[in-house]
Model the fold of this input.
Amino acid sequence: MTGFGHGTRRYPRSRGRTWSRNGPDRATLAIVGVICAVAGFFVLGIILGPVAIVCGWLGMGRTWSSRPVPALIALVLGAIDTLLAIIWLAGTAAPGSGFW
Done:
């Protein structure tokens, strides 16, 4: 029967690999988050900061129990980056900072 689509094992993918291989893994998300956080200090901090926070959170596996270092760095730097961008935008929009 093995020649007609019936293998020798019933579920060959159930052992060994238990996660989906469709998306990026946690280490890649953590590295992308760190890169976005560092780049956010120079350009587009209001956009790259939250992206770094999300990548860091997903890199940690959406839990606080496992804390890989790059994911934690991405999360913290993304939060600092977002906070600085919000303060900068609030200072720009303050009264008295117009043309005159």
Remarks:
- The mean pLDDT is 80.
- DSSP finds three helices and no strands in the chain.
- Residues 34 and 99 are 37 Å apart (CA to CA).
